[in-house]
Amino acid sequence: MKKPSIVFFDIDGTLYTQEMTLPESSKEAIKAIKDDGIYVAIATGRAPFMFESLREELDIETFVSFNGSYVVAEGEVIEKRPLKTEKVEELQLAAGSESHPMVFLDHEQAAANVENHAHISESLGDLKMPYPPLSENFYKQKEIYQALLFCGKEDEDLYKNNYGTFHFVRWHKRALDVLPAGGSKAEGIRAVANHLGYTIEDTAAFGDALNDMEMLTEAGIGIAMGNALEEVKQAADIVTSPVYENGVQQGLKRIGLL
Fold first, then answer.
1. 6-80+183-254: what fold?
2. What are the strands of the beta sheet with 203-207, ordered from one edge?
3. Catalytic hit among 10, 106, 208, 212
4. 169 bridge partner residues
5. Name one GO molecular function term (predicted).
């Protein structure tokens, strides 16, 4: 197993516990490997504005956000893939006809197309995020890097089978991420590695959810958290302990960085 030079961390379920807290052991472990010269970056489905305080806390300037649609290396945007406005409009009309609400995000803010919907409140509430302001035309005024479509698993094939320009990834029982087709965290970490002069074999990645599977397969070493979904564990090279049982620290020890 090659010792990695750059490590990517997912946020929810990897750095953050279910209570949206960063274990002290994870913070200390990340500082330790940075002090040893290991490059540390984030790879998340979140928008940049949703984890600004975490970046400051960990002193991280490089990240893959929106599951690969907006990539920043040392404060510089190196790749962005906004959704096509006309396709977003088609999707919103179809979702509206099924009474499925949506939220649209650029790198700075989010907006919902309906007010006070229970599914939006529940899903974003689980991330400790406030309900977005109402703006029916937000997606026409901004570059949208990700949308959230709120529907149950029983309805998702309606969209997956009819809107091939999008990649749909479930992250909550009530919600799907809507991304450009072909985009993924895997593509994002490769872009960062290339930009900074690393190879993909130099990378390690930690994750726990379905949107991490491609990244864990792509990275030189893929580490699944002990709290990960079973299919995510199967995609990884190593399974560490859960986030709330010092999983990041233990995983870094397993790959020889601590």
1. Rossmann fold (3.40.50)
2. 76-80, 70-73, 63-65, 39-43, 6-9, 203-207, 221-224, 238-239
3. 10
4. 177
5. phosphatase activity
Residue partners of 60: CB distance under 8 A and separation at least 6: 40, 41, 42, 54
Give the model confidence (pLDDT) of 173-222 as tens digits.
999 999 998 878 999 999 999 999 999 999 999 999 988 999 999 999 99
Distance CA 174, CA 72 (A): 29
Strands 221-224 and 238-239, by their bridges, are parallel
Q: What is the pLDDT of residues 69-126, one digit of tens each?
A: 999 999 999 999 999 999 999 999 999 999 999 999 999 999 999 999 999 999 999 8
Fold classified for 85-180: 3.30.1240
Residues of the chain with CATH 3.40.50.1000: 6-80+183-254
202 catalytic? Reply is no
